[in-house]
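Throughout our pipeline, every protein is held as a single compact record rather than as scattered files. This encoding replaces a full spatial description with a residue-level series of whole-number codes. The remainder of this section carries one protein's record, kept here as part of the documentation.
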Amino acid sequence: MKSNCLVSVVMPVYNGERYLAQAIESILNQTFQNFEFIVVNDGSTDKTPAILRRYDRLTVLNQENQGVAAASNNGIALTSGKYIARLDADDFSLANRLERQVDFLESNPEIGILGSSAYIIDSENRKWGIQKMPLSDAELRWMGLFKCPFIHSSVIFRRELVDKINALYDPAFAPSDDYELWIRLLKITRGMNLKSPAILYRVHSKNASTVQKSSIVTHSQEISKKAFAIYFPQAYDCFTAEGIKDIQSLLYSGTRGYRSFESSRTKIILDYLDLWDLYKKENRLSLNELNTMQRQLITKTSQMALFPPFISNAGRVTERLTRLNKNWFVIFLGSLPYAFLAFIRERLIWKRI
């Protein structure tokens, strides 16, 4: 372990033999080399221990299986770097990831959490497009009211934040413990995402987003409620907790889930637009932030309203969109290529895993 390193990379792994070597080597081959690499073997019963023994530069902590949250916490307890970077054992980092992220954080001391967008890949390393993420602090705080605003494997954060909140990942919220941690950390710092991908995020049959989707939805709703209580309590003066939960559920559902909201989707979308109007009123946004976030809102609202199955009373939604921006339909059309790729990815890659 390096005592004078700038970055500590922490990677928990449980039975990750298939992709582990690729993940490890993506860190070892970084253009930025002032790091320590801590891998927590969380009670693996496959070839993971043998793979880890191949590499001299790793600090390996072997433990009985405790889950990814506890494994991450135990790894972070061993860190000595100014920054902590996370990576899951089935993803991998682009070669300049750490260099780009460290340069950004060194130049922007007000930013405490930095993530990025990601290339989405399948089990055979085929790329299926880019997962875009909110860029500015204002954008990710709005998204954080409803769902996780960072891709976990892309995140690097300042070690000092851990000491300030005296807490790390909460296993009670697994597998959404990262989302819950970011909500707490954003009380004391600001966050951003790099626009261009820094990692490749793998979707396959055994990752948490596939295996534990129902738990993710349940815990995300709990964390969303906590985020509203912290950052936007005024919402509860105008909306019920159940109404906000419905908005969060629709946003999280994806196009495959729209049919289950068939009778209520119009009302939920209108509530979403009302919530945005209140958010604008209660939060100080720059003109650039307002324009950017409103375009994103128009894109998402248009998709929720106009993607099959079409909502009833679409005119009520389009009238509201026109009030936000008379060119809303042009904005919607501009989003279709990316939305089409996401639609194909959702129907094909998820079907094949």
In short: Residues 7-211 form a domain with the Spore Coat Polysaccharide Biosynthesis Protein SpsA; Chain A fold (CATH 3.90.550.10). The mean pLDDT is 91.
